[in-house]
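In this section we walk through a basic example: taking a raw amino acid sequence and producing a predicted 3D structure, encoded as discrete structure tokens. The instruction is simple. Fold the sequence below.
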Amino acid sequence: MAKLRLGEILVAEKKIDQVQLKSALAHQRRWGKKLGDCLVDLGFVSELDLVRTLSRFLRLPLIDVTRLDSTKITKDILGLVPLPVARKARAVPLATREIKRKKRLVIATSDPTNYAAFDEIQFKAGLPLLVMIAPDSDIDWFLRKYYMSDGDALPYNYVSGIS
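The resulting token sequence is shown next.
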């Protein structure tokens, strides 16, 4: 079975039409952005609609990272994914959970098909991942709030990944 592409999924779900897809693909070629970003930038689909569709199609839980209990986001959790890795991968650590007697790192990502980044995070953290999907704007919010906020800024070694 052939793998469906994002544009095809959105057309099949009637979130966009063929004309909008062609326009977004032209925008993508011109600006070099991801197709999802182009569709949102052009106003053809909302970021939340895009993420909800991906969540359903990929069978990944959708999470609102802006509503998490901030006392649960510890420096130890943040230290598992240094800021440069989190930014590049568009993935942030939320917690560790034991599932079937195995400890896992729970992450939220706006790019759920970035398997190379997941491999890197898994290797560096030393834990298998439990992946959830979140809007890219939520990932940016999380990065600013937990990695770069003035009030509780992390020491340089947490931000840069230097120990």
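Looking at the output, two observations stand out. The mean pLDDT is 88. The radius of gyration is 17 Å. In the next section we compare this with other chains.
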